[in-house]
Amino acid sequence: MLSLRHFLPAAERGGLFHVMVDKLGLRAALESRPHSSAVMKRAQERCAGCGREDACQTWLETNAHPDEAPAFCKNHDMFERLKHDIEAERKYRAA
């Protein structure tokens, strides 16, 4: 069975990363980080090399307001660390 992987070049497959970032509401936080361009480039490369584009596309279409990325996401841990950092900064500012 053919998947998106067979039809899309790596750069476009990595575009699912940007959809995921927006779906999780993490764009502003990610872009505000030091070296954000390099971090996003590496994350997009992980995304492009994943091989689960079909599952990702389906997940993105069926999860309107997710709390976290799917467990199979190669960037799941990065997204969780980013959310943890955001929460820690929010608590620090409130103190």
Automatic annotation (TrEMBL):
It holds the Pfam family DUF6455. Residues 13-84 form the DUF6455 domain. This is DUF6455 domain-containing protein.
